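Journal club prep, shared notes

We agreed each person brings one worked example of a sequence with its structure written out as tokens. Mine is Integral membrane protein. I'm keeping it raw so we can talk through how to read the token line rather than staring at a rendered picture. Sequence first:
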Amino acid sequence: MRIAIAGLLVAAAVIVGLIVNAHHPGLLFASAPPIFGDWQPHVGPGTPAALLIAFLVVAKGPELAQHRFALPIAYVTATLWTFSLAMIDGWDRFVTRLTTVDEYLHEVPGVTDIPAMLTGFTQRILDFQPDSWTTHVSGHPPGALLTFVSLDRVGLGGGTVASIFCVLVGSLAVVAIPKAIGDNAVLPFLVLFPGAIWVGASGDGMFMGVAAVGIYLLTRWPLLGGIVLGWCLFLSYGLVLLAPLAIAALWRQGDRFGAIGRRIGWALAGALAVVAAFAVSGFWWLDGYELVKIRYYQGIGDVRPYWYWVWANLAALALVIGPAGVRGLRKDKWIIAAGIAILAADLSGLSKAETERIWLPFAVWLLAGTAKLDRRWLTAQAVTALAVNHLVLTNW
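Then the structure, token by token:
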């Protein structure tokens, strides 16, 4: 039933989207609704590799998930899967995704003084100013820009390194999630995560990996996990919605309130330390958030219709998690927590101007329920990813 509902939702989003595009071109800002991209069937140099990796994971993945080196094998395979999907669109497209006029790297050369950048960051968020930040920098706290500036400072600048960095960090989610939930059986499904299409390469792919590591660390070392999740707050304002997943990580069945309270206290201490460090450096998160809401409606957020995207975003999400993700939805604390975060973002209206990549840090946790699924569902994951990547030339 869940698969049928998801299928109908995707079909409705496609049909309604095409009708809207035919009568109101440009209104949806998605030529291949509900995906932000263009209908353009194509193959590329990554096609053979993607097919081979999919075949091997379906054939050997469930057995290798129990191997003593399962985690490193899964990490390498997920990285190769993501890279091969990106190469379907070609190398040139992969290395320039983060260098366009709307992206983070566009602003890197202009950051010659990091303390001054942090102090004056909020003054450049609003649009229609001579020195307004480019779209992605203005729409995020300074941590994302600071990451790419730091790479540039150590001699690892440019689009090639930035794109590879996003893939390598994003793939850490494949390792962190099984460790957090305590079940390696989900590994093959995480490896063939259809959302990998948007991990290579986007800032949100990087955010997914950092967030997953932070959530895992909360289950073991709350202070360290709090620090990492505190950093997440300065990668994207939307990552404040990791709170339900953080609670899921800190809550252990049968624990007394005092034990849970201590873990929460350590986690908050770590996160607040990061918030304080940015505040001392001149950036106050709440000021940035209030200005970003204004900037949001200075762009396509003011045009894209809420009535369509409030449900079509869920259709896009279904493609991100794939049939196995939909089939594995159940009453599980990780899935419930991720679902709460996704619904909050969707209903807020502050996600209707975004694309499927924004769901990555939350959507990947919906695969926590795939542990008991068989190879047929692994095949379905691979087919979904390959079909979307070959039929649509995605913007991310």
